[in-house]
Design goal:
Shape: elongated
Radius of gyration: 27 Å
Distance between the termini: 37 Å
Structural class: mainly alpha
């Protein structure tokens, strides 16, 4: 899938289509969301079925309206199942009845991730930060509470969000069969048991000692399930570096889960408060560098070029970044192992160099698109999220490398606050900022809709950018200026506000509000063309008469294409076109009898 709704002179180009589910050269099955014209073009034998139900054959365009089968069946007074059965018999193919529900597989994962981060993840972390600020010391909170916050945020927010996006996006880009409903439910259930069970065990191991190993085992099962999904989706694509990044991410996720279950089992009665600094560091390396960064680098190759409007990534640099990064992860793990005498700086240096190579390979994330502002492309300011995120990636890795070199040269490590600042630069500055930016563009694409609250793009950016900067600077300042402890908790308030606004945007994107065409029978420049033609197929002839030749050439219309963009790319005035559509809806819409398609009035386009 190409996530960018590219435009071509004179006509809006098409967004990528959902995979049909066919494999091995087999013809794809029918889907209820396919248009009459699309089915008639792909399966000419189906034209007789449509003619029998009243589809006209004498229109001055390709056979069939741009009307989904489910709408056609309702308008003709026939059940959808009967229509699909007759069409499938005529075409000699099957019917994919789960196609529409498959478009929403990411919803429960994304919603769970957002709920967890606002409560037990970032929410719990903010509470701990206020305790630290009140006491003026990092020792004010228990180590077990810190581990509970960190693991819940990483497993419950980061891993769940990535899993949900992967389950929805990978079949779209690989055209592989979608994971079934039962494996998806089991995967989500295992993740929720692992996250909530792990949190309960961490804060009260004396009461819930059995939850430690049980929740760890659930995470192992979830990681195995995700690894199986990724293997099935990227099979045969090993030469593509994006596929190997994603596969490496799934493999490191399993390693992270295996280490987690071992630790939870060995400390079931005492809880994670007894974890050593080296153990906690190993978990962070597996989560941040092993799982998360590999996933971001992999999916980033497929998504970020289209989002930012940059040229094709430089394959050689990205390939080098893959090998260098996945050398750095085990190098850091070995350096932090029990009894290890290996320094950590080679691993940190490898990770930093890989990040630089990746940024250069993706052409630096510097260029901003110079294209007309259109809602299908997303808000331009979302580009700034990506640029800021990669700044914090490089800054965080630089802090990490400096700390490791300092330990070698001086024989002692920098204060705990320094490591916390570097970690926060990576977790919030890079990963959370990237999720908030890419999520506001990717979720509308996956749902074939538009950003529901464009005016919130700037405030969310300002809140997460200011909150993260305040947290990193105040944490670095605490060894020298104790007053920084008082300032630091307010960074959590800003970050939580950003997450709350993003949650509101994400929920409205996942469950869009009805368009004014549905609510009031009036179109706007943001009304989807596909919706207009689905609800009022007779309007297609009027658009053709006005000069919108695009609707006569294509077999289906991208669900996110708006009337404003269609009019603009066809050389028409968007506001005037919408006004004429609304006039027709008012005067002719009610007069259109079921099963009939009124002809356009004799009128000259203005």
């Amino acid at each position: 899938m190409n996530p960018q709704v590219a435009t071509q002179p004179g006509a809006p180009a098409l967004a990528a289509r959902e995979p049909h589910g066919g494999a091995g050269g087999q013809r794809p099955p029918l889907r209820p969301d396919m248009t009459v014209r699309q089915v008639a073009a792909d399966y000419p034998a189906c034209q007789d079925v449509f003619l029998r139900y009243g589809e006209p054959a004498d229109r001055p365009t390709k056979f069939g309206h741009l009307e989904p089968l489910e709408h056609f069946a309702r308008r003709q007074g026939v059940s959808l199942e009967q229509l699909l059965g007759e069409l499938a018999a005529a075409a000699g193919v099957g019917v994919d009845r789960d196609a529409l529900s498959a478009q929403h597989v990411h919803r429960p994962f994304v919603v769970a991730a957002l709920v967890i981060t606002l409560t037990l993840g970032a929410g719990w972390g903010a509470w701990l930060l206020f305790e630290i600020g009140w006491e003026g010391s990092f020792e004010a909170v228990q180590p077990a509470d810190v581990v509970a916050h960190g693991e819940t945020q990483l497993w419950g927010f980061l891993a769940l969000f990535v899993m949900g996006i992967a389950l929805r996006y990978l079949p779209m880009t690989t055209s592989r069969p979608r994971p079934g409903r039962v494996p998806r439910v089991l995967l989500l259930s295992a993740m929720l048991l692992g996250v909530f069970g792990g949190f309960a065990w961490a804060v009260a191991p004396a009461w819930w000692s059995w939850l430690g190993p049980l929740s760890g085992a659930a995470l192992v099962l979830a990681a195995l399930g995700f690894l199986a999904v990724v293997l099935q989706q990227v099979a045969g694509k090993w030469t593509a570096s994006w596929a190997r990044f994603v596969l490496a991410s799934a493999a490191w996720l399993f390693a992270w889960a295996a280490v987690t279950v071992g630790l939870r089992a060995s400390s079931a009665a005492s809880g994670p408060g007894i974890y050593s600094d080296a153990t906690r560091q190993a978990l962070m390396v597996l989560a941040l560098f092993g799982f998360a960064l590999n996933a971001i680098y992999g999916f980033g190759q497929k998504l970020l070029s289209g989002f930012l409007g940059i040229r094709t990534p430089r394959r050689g640099l990205v390939e080098a970044a893959f090998w260098l990064h996945n050398f750095g992860v085990p190098a850091l793990l070995l350096a932090g192992g029990v009894g290890s005498v290996l320094p950590a700086w080679p691993g940190s240096l490898a990770l930093a160099m890989a990040a630089v190579l990746y940024a250069l390979g993706m052409r630096g994330f510097v260029r901003v698109r110079h294209v007309p502002a259109r809602p299908e492309l997303g808000e331009r300011f979302l580009d700034r999220y990506v640029q800021l995120a990669f700044f914090w990636l490089l800054a965080g890795l630089a802090l990490l490398l400096f700390g490791d070199l300092y330990a070698v040269l001086r024989g002692t490590r920098l204060p705990h606050a320094y490591a916390g600042a570097a970690r926060h630069a990576l977790t919030v500055g890079f990963m959370t900022t990237l999720i908030l930016g890419v999520g506001q563009r990717l979720l509308p694409i996956l749902g074939h809709t538009l950003h529901p609250r464009p005016r919130l793009v700037g405030p969310i950016f300002a809140l997460i950018a200011t909150g993260n900067l305040l947290r990193v600077l105040s944490e670095l300042a605490t060894p020298l200026f104790p007053v920084a402890y008082v300032v630091m908790p307010f960074s959590a308030v800003l970050e939580l506000a950003a997450l709350a606004l993003f949650t509101a945007v994400a929920l409205r994107t996942l469950w869009p509000a009805p368009d004014s065409l549905i609510r009031m029978g009036q179109a706007t420049v943001r009304t989807p063309v596909a919706m207009l033609l689905a609800e009022h197929p007779w309007m297609e002839d009027h658009l053709l008469a006005w000069g919108c030749g695009y609707v006569g050439r294509v077999r289906s219309v991208p669900a996110e294409l708006t009337l404003g963009t269609l009019a603009e790319t066809e050389g028409l005035d968007p506001q005037e076109t919408v006004a004429r559509i609304n006039a027709l809806l008012q005067t002719q819409g009610q007069a259109a009898a079921p099963g009939s398609v009124p002809s356009p009035r004799e009128e000259k386009p203005t």
